[in-house]
Amino acid sequence: MGSSVASPAWARVWRSSSRRPRRLAPTVPGSGPPSTEFELGTDLVQKTKWAEALAAFERAQALRPHAVTLYNIGACQRAMGMYTVARETFERALARSAAEGKGELAASLADQTRTFVTEIEGLLARVKLDVRGAEGEPTSVTVDGRPLLARGPGEYVAGVRAPGLADAVPGRFTVAMNPGHHVLVVHREGAADGVIALDLRAGESSERIVDPARLPASIRVTSNLEAVVTINGKDAGPTPLDIQRPAGVYRIVLEREKFEPYSMSIDAKPGKPVKLHATLVPERVPITKRWWFWTGIGVVVAGAAVTTYALTRPDPVRPPLSGGGLGWTVPVQ
Questions:
Q1: CATH code of the domain made up of 12-122
Q2: Which residues neighbour 244 within 8 Å (Cβ) at sequence distance 6 or greater?
Q3: How many CB atoms lie within 10 A of CB 13?
Q4: What is the spatial distance between Cα 274 and Cα 6, in angstroms, rounded to a whole number?
């Protein structure tokens, strides 16, 4: 397919794929001489050096923004097969021309821009995604390492945004992509990434279901001395212990003979490691369990009993005196 690029003079260039001449539109009307970068971009287009021409037009746009320069940028992107971003650029050119009120794009160039947008709509491949569990947990999607751009409810486009953090997406939506090979990654906290390799033809529509697998929690238990570990009352083995369990709350207890038991509750998150280190201390034997305690208690109790008896026993009653054969008694003062 041919590609029109606005140039500072009426010229003829050849598209490398078609080798057919195309008549170019004039440059920015009534805005003075074009910038050096703009002229450079036009010359590079004539040599079908699209990537270099694109860079030159982008520099020209940064120096002097104009709808015609945006059109040229979109034309280069289209020639390079960057259809999703070219559509965005063409739409920006039309919007700027209309907003300025002066019609920066000539009527013929505006018509050509709209024709390109319609053409690209038919070239884009579309994939309907059904991401299981996305409604309940934040889920993001990238295509070729780039986050998606939302164009409307349930409608996204790939290849437009710069690499970076991706926004949360709904459970079901459609993403438009350039034809060709792509790698789509579905990411959710606590789940294994869902990776889909796509080979898409121009205008193709397909559907994909992605169900990111929920990851188990990884639990590592260590201690200063070897001990037996129980998790929720079930024997899990000696320390050091590495074990995986479904996400959830667990009661972990470490026990060793003659040492105080160590216990702790953890909230294990999916896909997240939990590290627990226990310091066991010698068992503190209660005083009531020591032999000398009860021996001493026995001595004290026995002594207390003797003392109590001595203090509380009644005085003995003296028997009546006998006067012998004469019946005499002598009182003692």
A1: 1.25.40.10
A2: 216, 217, 218, 219
A3: 20
A4: 61
Residue range 217-278 forms a domain whose CATH class is mainly beta
pLDDT at 92 over 90: yes
In this structure, which long-range contacts are made by residues 189-192, counting pairs with CB atoms below 8 Å and at least 24 apart in sequence?
189/137, 189/138, 189/270, 189/271, 190/137, 190/214, 190/215, 190/247, 190/269, 190/270, 190/271, 190/272, 191/133, 191/137, 191/215, 191/270, 191/271, 192/271
Place of tokens 């792509």: 182
| pLDDT at 326 > cutoff 80 | no
For the chain, how many residues are written?
Answer: 333
What's the CA gap between 122 and 264, in Å, rounded?
61
Q: CATH 2.60.40.1120: which residues of the chain?
A: 217-278
More confident residue, 296 or 37: 37
Mean pLDDT score across all residues of the chain = 82
Which CATH number is 125-210 given? 2.60.40
- Angstrom CA distances, 81 to 64, 201, 302, stand at 26, 13, 105
Q: What mean pLDDT comes out for the span 251-267?
A: 94
Contact 26, 104 (CB under 8 A): no
Question: How does pLDDT run across 184-216, given as a tens digit for each residue?
Answer: 999 988 888 888 999 999 999 999 998 887 778
Q: What is the DSSP letter of 144?
A: T
Going by C-alpha positions, the residue among 121, 64, 71, 122 that lies closest to residue 92 is 71
CB contact at 8 A, 111 and 123: no
Global pTM reads 0.64
CA nearest 45: which of 35, 57, 33?
57
Identify whether the C-beta of residue 106 lies closer than 8 Å to the C-beta of residue 144: no
Residues forming CATH 1.25.40.10 domain(s) in the chain: 12-122
